Amino acid sequence: MKANGWKHWLGCALLATTLAACSSGPVRRVSEPAARIQQLTVNADGSWTAQLRIENYSSIPMRFDRVELALQAGGHDAGTLQTAPALDIGPESADVVEVRMTPSAAAKLAAADALAAARALPYLINGTVTATPEEARKSRQFEVEYRSSLNPAPGLPGVLR
């Protein structure tokens, strides 16, 4: 009878430990977000409209309050992509915001050359993204850097993707 009592006590302890481990709920992880240019449109007035894709890699929703990214296009400083989107993005999701900017003359020429020659335009963005995790009182600033290239979109004049 003592052996059965010991097994019963061990079973209850194991059950209690398992239930205690489950009671804390899912892990709430805040991860560094990412940003990249999804599309760049060269407007008739010489300005650019960038569709900026913001990616939330956290396991909780985040509110993206501010984006400030220096842009280099074709190896030239183009200017700064700045916006205050006040955008809520769910866990492990992404959304797109449009940012209009006036690029430098050298960057304009690099984009025009890439479009005319139907070749890629390399770019680099780096700066900060300010976001607030769900239920947090304080926003956090995240460093972002992304390097890629954009190619002319067939049939869409002035558009690089």
UniProtKB/TrEMBL annotation:
The lineage of its organism: Bacteria, Pseudomonadati, Pseudomonadota, Gammaproteobacteria, Lysobacterales. SUPFAM superfamilies: LEA14-like. This is Late embryogenesis abundant protein LEA-2 subgroup domain-containing protein. InterPro entries: LEA_2 (IPR004864). It comes from the Bacteria. Pfam families: LEA_2. Residues 52-132 form the Late embryogenesis abundant protein LEA-2 subgroup domain.
